[in-house]
Amino acid sequence: MEKQYHVGFDDSHGAEYAILPGDPGRVEKIAAFLENPRFFCQNREYTAWLGELAGKTVMVMSTGMGGPSTAIGVEELFKTGVSNFIRVGTCGGMALPVTGGDIVIATGAIRQEGTTREYVPIEFPAVANLEVTNALVKAAEKLNLKWHAGIVQCKDSFYGQHDPQRMPAGYELLNKWDAWIKAGCLASEMESAALYIVSQMLGARAGCVLNVVWNQEREKAGLDNPRCHDTEPGIKTAIEAIRILIS
Fold first, then answer.
1. Which residue, among 177, 226, 190, 194, has the nearest Cα to 90 in the 3D structure?
2. Would 1 be classed as within a structural domain?
3. 207 part of a folded domain
4. pLDDT at 200
5. N or C: which end of the chain has fewer CB within 10 A?
6. What Å distances lie between residue 122 and 68, 126, 151, 176, 235, CA to CA?
7. Which residue range forms the structural domain that includes residue 100?
8. How far is CA 73 from its chain centroid?
9. What local confidence, expressed as pLDDT, does residue 91 receive?
10. What residues does 63 pair with on adjacent strands?
11. pTM, two decimal places
């Protein structure tokens, strides 16, 4: 087949499983947890490495930030033969029990972004694949990590979350933020909704594990609020989950 326009490669990689960080700078770090890691391709925001796990080829490819580039990446990966996706990223906690250093396994995402509205009407939920989610939970338990599983908020504007009072639409952002918290939303990030909706439309399997950096709601409440930039817990969870899925 021809090379895909955005990711820059064809189906010669032979991978059915892909780990998807947002940051291109994390790709090599994640690939180091695989056997025989090697650079594969780089184009635009899409940096890809390959490796092996339990006898299968696994790709690690960055998606960039936000829904549009995530959707394009998943679409083109699927065309080249990848049918199982696990996003590994970072998030900010929203529910008070979620603290820096924890991991969040996203069972579904609030579609407060624009990409998925061009796939399916807003009433359709963005939900993770059950088999992938169960594998992530088993992996987190095996690794003895502090984990949470539940709904996350997926938005397009980082600064709309962190500085909503500055925005002309701040009244809406603040009201919705309060609603998500009251409904039990665990954390906020930017890519899971696109991953889930696009995978659903394609017939692929997708899950998401997020490293919690901090929790602005704990800070507002005057609670202990550690900051953690270590991404290894989520990476190790994704690696072990793929091993479980392969077996």
1. 190
2. no
3. yes
4. 98
5. C
6. 16, 9, 16, 15, 31
7. 11-246
8. 13
9. 98
10. none
11. 0.97
Separation of alpha carbons 247 and 245, rounded Å:
5
**Tokens standing for residue 102:** 């924890």
Q: At what angle do helices 192-202 and 67-79 cross, to 10 degrees?
A: 30
Low-confidence ranges of the chain (pLDDT < 70): none
Q: Is residue 233 part of a domain?
A: yes
Question: What's the half-sphere exposure (Cβ side, CA atoms, 13 Å) at 196?
Answer: 28
Q: How far is CA 58 from CA 53, 104, 133, 150, 207, in A?
A: 7, 23, 18, 26, 15
Q: What is the pLDDT of residues 145-170, one digit of tens each?
A: 999 999 999 999 999 988 999 999 99
Using DSSP, state whether 6 is helix, strand or coil. coil
Look at residue 100 in the predicted model and tell me its pLDDT.
98
- Give the phi and the psi of residue 75 in degrees, each rounded to 5: -55, -50
Q: Is residue 6 part of a domain?
A: no
| Residue 210 belongs to domain with CATH number | 3.40.50.1580
Domain count, the chain: 1
What are the tens digits of pLDDT across the range 50-62? Answer: 999 999 999 999 9
